[in-house]
Amino acid sequence: MIARSFARHRLLFLAVLTGLTAGLAAVSLKILVHLVSGISTSRLPGSVFSFLPAAGLLLTIVFTRFVLRAQPGTTADILVTIVQRSSIVERFKMNSHLVGSALTVGLLGSAGLESPIAITGAAIGSNLGRNVNYKERTLLLSCGAAAGIAAVFNAPVAGMLFAIEVLLLDVSLSSIIPLVAAAVTGSLCSIVLQQNEILFEFPRIQHFDYRNIPFYFILALFCSMISLLYSGIMRLAQRFLSPFPWLLKWGVAGLILWAVGSIAPVVLGEGYRAIAGLTQGLPREFFHSIPLPVPFAVALCIFVVLKIIATAATLKSGGIGGNFAPSLFVGACAGFALANAFNAAHPGLLPEGNFTIVGMAGTLSGVMYAPLTAVFLIAEATGGYTLMVPLLLVSALTHVIVIQLRSHSMELSELEEQGVNPTRRRDAQILGQIRLGDLLEKDFVTVFEDAKLRDLIGAIAISRRNLFPVVTSSGDLVGIVTLNDIRDQIFKSELYDSQFVRDLMVPIRQSIDINDSMQMAMDKFDHSGAWNLPVVEGKRYAGFVSRSRLFAAYREGARSV
Q: Which of 109, 216, 474, 560 has its CB surrounded by the most CB atoms within 10 Å?
């Protein structure tokens, strides 16, 4: 009882510590981004403004390739870590995203800070939980991500829901409390240190009018189309840019960012100033960016496409950032454009500010596949709780429409490309926590290939097994001898000194490498039909793994997940 209580309190303490550290990291990142952005935009002449994203992208690529010498990763990589690497995140990811995203976003790359800080928080939680079990470490990893999101948006509920919808596979009451503690701690860090309780001031909010429900249905359809367009352009950019060497990739992406920034500088950076203008009914950021005499609603739709293109160029060429902020930007544009178009025909028909807010939630839901996160993030970040009904309606409907047309989010699609089946995430998670080395059976007596039958008889006498791995003088596994294979020879003493083990063994048809994933090991058992398979490290014999022991480990893992 005392031990259980201590473990529970220890986990809660680690969750709060994770939330505090991730919250401080989020505040530091925001300060660093604003510092970089302020220096670059205030001291450089306007003529080089459109070149800043390309410069930031180059610095980010140089930082990752030549300083880190590793890829910082994405949210999809965190999912892979949970599923395949026992939720152990590399230590360098606790700070790599802070520097990388500050360079990318601070120099006006089209991306957000939310995914980088979520990954940073996840790395913090994972490393603080190095000495706890897999289940608790996964929870602490999720606590870090929740705290990071909560600190960026001052939205603890949204941070918690993000961890549940995107990262955690199973949720119980015992896991909710640490998530709440971490998210609240992270949010408090932001509030205390930066004194900004609401991200988007929303003075023109109007109460929900049920008579506008048909228009909210139209908005949901519009957000669904934009979400699919977003993922489609991102996928196209990935396929287009991936074959290029890094320098050429940067050159193409930099040229795209320069062209887009020259046409519509408002789409560069996070875009929060422009969003704030729309939510307040003061879209001056956009009016200054419209080069053509087109209706404002049409211009906003153009900005939606340009923002997605700029984001794809930034993220798929080596920039470090996320899709949260771009999703909010295009959603705000979509909502305002729809209301503005109807109001052009019937003045005062729809509240443009309300549709701006709800459009943000709808698009975020469609892009991230996290409808509850979208609802509460927007409600908390804008103070728009009076719009809870349309927020829920549009987010849920957008999610339903998008999932019918594209079964997996961009993150899960990336997992599929890495060989992780999203439909078997629980199985993969359970297998990911099993260590092949822990299942090795090493009590098999080895015999050398150039040994004689007499030596093999001696090995049989001292062994309790009926399998005998055959190795070379250097320890390489070359075959297996079973008692059934030599049953007749055992009783022929005249063969003891004339017959060699190499002539009696069966060559290795299937083996497991010590570095194979557990899923690969399972597949090899299924393919071979064997009950025992040898394990090698390179070519050297390491031991055997039995089918029964593997399944027993799986059952034990299933009880702990």
A: 109
Element (H, E) at 237: helix 213-241
Indicate the fold that domain 2-194 takes in CATH.
Answer: Clc chloride channel (1.10.3080)
What are the E-state strand segments in 113-192?
Answer: none
The CATH classification number of 434-560 equals 3.10.580.10
Find out whether 317 and 258 touch, Cβ atoms under 8 Å.
Answer: no
Cβ atoms 331, 362 nearer than 8 A: yes
Is 217 within 8 Å of 179 (Cβ atoms)?
no
pLDDT at 422: 47
Place of tokens 């991936």: 242
What is the rounded CA–CA span in Å between residue 396 and residue 377? 14
Superfamily of domain 210-426: Clc chloride channel (1.10.3080.10)
Residues forming CATH 1.10.3080.10 domain(s) in the chain: 2-194, 210-426
Phi, psi of 73 (to 5 degrees): 95, 175
Using CA atoms, how far apart are residues 210 and 443, in angstroms rounded to an integer? Answer: 73
C-alpha atoms less than 13 angstroms from C-alpha of 212 in its C-beta half-sphere: 25
Low-confidence ranges of the chain (pLDDT < 50): 1, 3, 422-423
Identify the pLDDT of residue 153: 86
